[in-house]
Design a protein that fits this description.
286 residues, alpha/beta, D-Maltodextrin-Binding Protein, domain 2, Alpha-Beta Plaits, 3 domains, five-stranded mixed β-sheet, 8 helices, flat, binds adenosine-5'-triphosphate, binds magnesium ion, glycosyltransferase, EC 2.4.2.17, ATP-binding, magnesium ion binding
Length: 286
């Protein structure tokens, strides 16, 4: 029987859209939504399972699924024996300590002997141990941010992305203890055939990610400025330069990192470049 990768994704939540989008961009088609619990891809040997995110690390460890996408916070907190295969760069958030807004904060030692409410006892416990702080961890599974208001704890440790939930509960963020993003996890021992399917998938994911970080740039430049402009546009090997119909001018084509683009665009313009086009790249294979 030929192998098929079983991939666990969050059914619906903050990871779902970007996870589905990633596979779409990798050219892997499958149906989702409409209350389905699983779906087989029509063009890649993969079957997708739609689950609560908290269940994904366990299913991957137990071999119900071969791969999964979860927040690193959930993967670490689960303490499961799973491998992090790749960082995916979406669903970014941080795990932070917060205290009532009116309270003074002089540093982590302020939490000594205090009660801290969290759904992340493992990550928080490790952090406190590293900081040599002994405090009581009070585990609650949801709505952690109301704990100080009802006298359950003096501080909380919870996921923050914009900080608006903290604000509306009268809390302030005082310390970031963990930074998270979505990660691709795998069972620690994959059979050879599954491993080679995973390698194929990773190849595609990397091509999609590289394309997102880079732009194709086309511009016109006077020949006298070419050397300077070429040095500002390193490209994958080196820029392509072709003569324009207008005497003394060339067209320059290159690939540029999004960040380098904004850094260098002024220099490129003042070197004499005109008609600059910046075009998104769909896939990029090194
Ligand atoms: P499920 O119903 O699958 O158990 P959930 O409610 O536990 O979902 P979500 O709120 O969808 O989980 O968050 C999933 C993951 O998205 C989090 O574990 C975290 O890694 C990430 N995330 C990103 N931003 C936020 C945020 N603002 N709040 C919570 N989680 C966030
Ligand atoms: Mg959950």
């Amino acid at each position: 029987m030929s192998s098929i990768l079983r991939i666990a994704l969050q059914k619906s939540g903050r990871l779902s859209e970007d996870s589905y989008q990633l596979f779409k961009e990798c050219g892997i088609r499958f149906d989702y939504g409409t209350g389905k619990l699983k779906s087989v891809s029509s063009n890649f040997p993969a079957e997708f399972l739609f689950l609560r995110d908290d269940d994904i690390p366990g299913y991957v460890e137990d071999g119900v699924a071969d791969l999964g996408i979860v927040g690193e916070n959930v993967a670490v907190e689960s303490a499961r024996n799973i491998d992090t295969v790749h960082r995916l760069g979406f669903s970014k958030c941080r795990l932070s300590l917060a205290i009532p807004r009116g309270n003074e904060w002089n540093g982590i030692q302020d939490l000594s002997g205090k009660n801290i409410a969290t759904s992340y006892p493992l990550i928080l416990g490790n952090y406190l141990r590293d900081q040599n702080i002994s405090a009581d961890i009070h585990v609650i599974s949801g709505s952690v941010e109301i704990a100080p208001g009802i006298g359950l704890a003096e501080a909380i440790c919870d996921i923050v992305s914009s900080g608006s939930t903290l604000l509306s509960n009268g809390l302030k963020e005082v310390e970031v203890i963990f930074r998270s993003e979505a990660i691709l996890i795998a069972r620690s021992t994959l059979e050879t055939e599954k491993q080679s399917l995973l390698d194929k998938l990773l190849f595609r994911i990397k091509a999609v990610q590289a394309a997102k970080n880079n732009k194709y740039i086309v511009l016109n430049a006077p020949n006298a400025a070419l050397d300077q402009i070429k040095s500002l546009l390193p490209g994958m090997k080196s820029p392509t330069v072709t003569p324009l119909a207008t005497e003394g001018w060339s067209s320059v084509h290159s690939v540029i990192n999004e960040n380098d683009f904004w850094e260098n665009i002024e220099a490129i313009r003042s070197a004499g470049a005109q008609g600059i086009l910046v075009i998104p790249i769909e896939k990029m294979i090194y």
